Known about the structure:
heterodimer; A: alpha+beta; Arc Repressor Mutant, subunit A; three-stranded antiparallel beta sheet; B: 5 domains; six-stranded mixed barrel; 27 helices; 22 strands; about 55% helix
Amino acid sequence: xxxxxxxxxxxxxxxxxxxxxxxxxxxxxxxxxxxxxxxxxxxxxxxxxxxxxxxxxxxxxxxxxxxxxxxxxxxxxxxxxxxxxxxxxxxxxxxxxxxxxxxxxxxxxx
Amino acid sequence: xxxxxxxxxxxxxxxxxxxxxxxxxxxxxxxxxxxxxxxxxxxxxxxxxxxxxxxxxxxxxxxxxxxxxxxxxxxxxxxxxxxxxxxxxxxxxxxxxxxxxxxxxxxxxxxxxxxxxxxxxxxxxxxxxxxxxxxxxxxxxxxxxxxxxxxxxxxxxxxxxxxxxxxxxxxxxxxxxxxxxxxxxxxxxxxxxxxxxxxxxxxxxxxxxxxxxxxxxxxxxxxxxxxxxxxxxxxxxxxxxxxxxxxxxxxxxxxxxxxxxxxxxxxxxxxxxxxxxxxxxxxxxxxxxxxxxxxxxxxxxxxxxxxxxxxxxxxxxxxxxxxxxxxxxxxxxxxxxxxxxxxxxxxxxxxxxxxxxxxxxxxxxxxxxxxxxxxxxxxxxxxxxxxxxxxxxxxxxxxxxxxxxxxxxxxxxxxxxxxxxxxxxxxxxxxxxxxxxxxxxxxxxxxxxxxxxxxxxxxxxxxxxxxxxxxxxxxxxxxxxxxxxxxxxxxxxxxxxxxxxxxxxxxxxxxxxxxxxxxxxxxxxxxxxxxxxxxxxxxxxxxxxxxxxxxxxxxxxxxxxxxxxxxxxxxxxxxxxxxxxxxxxxxxxxxxxxxxxxxxxxxxxxxxxxxxxxxxxxxxxxxxxxxxxxxxxxxxxxxxxxxxxxxxxxxxxxxxxxxxxxxxxxxxxxxxxxxxxxxxxxxxxxxxxxxxxxxxxxxxxxxxxxxxxxxxxxxxxxxxxxxxxxxxxxxxxxxxxxxxxxxxxxxxxxxxxxxxxxxxxxxxxxxxxxxxxxxxxxxxxxxxxxxxxxxxxxxxxxxxxxxxxxxxxxxxxxxxxxxxxxxxxxxxxxxxxxxxxxxxxxxxxxxxxxxxxxxxxxxxxxxxxxxxxxxxxxxxxxxxxxxxx
Lengths: 110, 885
């Protein structure tokens, strides 16, 4: 492995998953890929940990899942954002930009 | 997802676990496959590609656990896993499981029995509607504190009609009655009740109807009766035609108007009447009327609070009525004060005695349970230490501490709940034994011990609480294991646990010492009492009773009957002698009278000597084997017209005429004339075996008549066989006369001995149980310690220690633990001696012999328990022990 990649702060994975799914329904592998692409490979996400996050988010009612057929003709489980999920994404985004702005400000001042 | 949907998901995961696991696995496989393809595209070999894909996926086992927590059965699944795992663990160590279950089962069984006693007497409400509204009314004087559930009929009517807080108030009274059925008579117990009795209780007839208020207005006008369900079943075969038919009570015809519902046995928790009769029929039931006379407090009142009235309001208002009555009838009612208590036990003193007694029993069995649980905790601690490696491995592969503690806790709760099931079975068996060993009494006394829902819930709660509280410390201890040290087989973590186990055993030894001392003192007390004896010879004698008053005998006819029957019985083959007494000694109660010697001024009320009195026939003393130490027996010539005579016991003779001959002296007794002492008899026990010597006065039955009496017959051989021949003599004299309470004198003694026997048996068995449990505890600790010290012992032996040195070393450790425990126990036992002393007779609560014996006994048992592991220690092979280091 090359240079150090920062690990995800606690709780942000859910937001990233929601963001990835806001682009359209996708299976678990695709969600991981999308996060990787969006972050331009700057973040380290252990791929396996995606799944507990997906199951947890599904339980909260923010995403829904169903079996579908993948590009390469295999059975795959597809996840898609629900209306509640879309709303939650908005909330999380607002919270996050607020937080990162505040933290950035502190770091720049001192 | 709604909660319903979530639950459905979890249940699906539980039921179709394989399927859900399959889905997850498929999803992940898909992921890894795609990643592998991607890796190959980037130029890896297929092998590298797959490896890299799996590496990137992360710790699959951990992820699976977390996923399963979210998607799978969750906590339900975890619990189920733990239960299965626990069951496997317990099956794997049957010795441990057996000892733990046995300890718990015995401890919890004892608790179940004692609690069922408390539930029966104190907790189980009467089977009436809204029992919480019904209260017994106790009457007393404002000044002194003695209250009793008693009231005169006129006061009852006034308080019933004038109060504004009771929706109903009724009275009852229990009485013996003679029931004629199928040509034979039997003396049974029933209730006289006011007409509203059933209405106030809210009890509906099972068959027919209960009384109307009109049926209880005019004396001797409406001979009707309501049968108890038990009476109807037992005596009338449950015949539906009973309603409207006629039954014979005391030779009078009563119409059976109804049957009470099953389970309703009146207003007392330990008394079972056969039937109920309106209070206005009292004259037909017993001699004399209790319906008149404001000072004649022979009725037992109770009332039902109106809705919305609380106890305090009711008490205040009833006392306002009582004060009014006090002003109107100062002679009888001045200072009258009323109290309300829960119904079920007539006497408030009895109630507090029962509470104190059952409290003491409950404390004892809880102590035993504590000892049992100490064993459980100790065993769990030892196991936790043994399982350190297993636990460390599980922690190393990612189990959290909470998860491990939870699993260990599940195991101990499983143990305690299974133990509780055993306990319930043991308790049920003990209840059957207890029921069979209750003595028969003439009184319709029942103790309906049952495993009701209260007992079961108590036991289950006890099991869960003990399982958690005694499993928690070991569970937390075990899960605190340091992974690295544990895997390296380090022993320092065990130090604190060993100390904890030692402390637990010290507590066990101390507790069982206290229980053993208590039991030892009780047994000594019993021995002492039995050695002193009742003052008569209970062997080879039978007794049976008749109630002539119920059959309408007058005094002359009665005296004739007593004399004739005694004469007829005396000539029966096998009969040595026979005599009458109004009431046998050591029955439940006695009558007392004021006495003082002639020639003295009448003592003031508080200094007046009080003597127990009975009426007896000639030959009573010879029959009972009570020696006449001076003077003569009563004779046929002591009749109503002749001068009044008495026979007294030695205690009375010595108290009134110390160092003088009592014969020919005279004494004042009650309201009778001055009576001449014609005989002195040896002292005996009259009320209870534990009583201090009492003053006793015997009157001739021919001068102080009794309407009911017991005939005592001394036989040369098997006394039981004599009962039927005496019965037929009674039949010849009066075919209608019921005989009751026929039994041998030895059986009669069982009643008097019952409290002592029961006390000794209960205390003894619980103490032995405690001792066995403590022995198990000592053995467990020592065996474990030897196991831990195998290396050390091996080294010592390699360096030249002999087997006897090793044996001594191990034994010393056990002796120290036991000795510390016994010292604690000794201190507690001496501290408790004040409490214990009140239950003992003829033995000091610090009886040195008992203390010495118990100390030796417990030491011997403890040594025996230590000896087994100590012997095992000497068998350690130094080579093997050191090699395994």
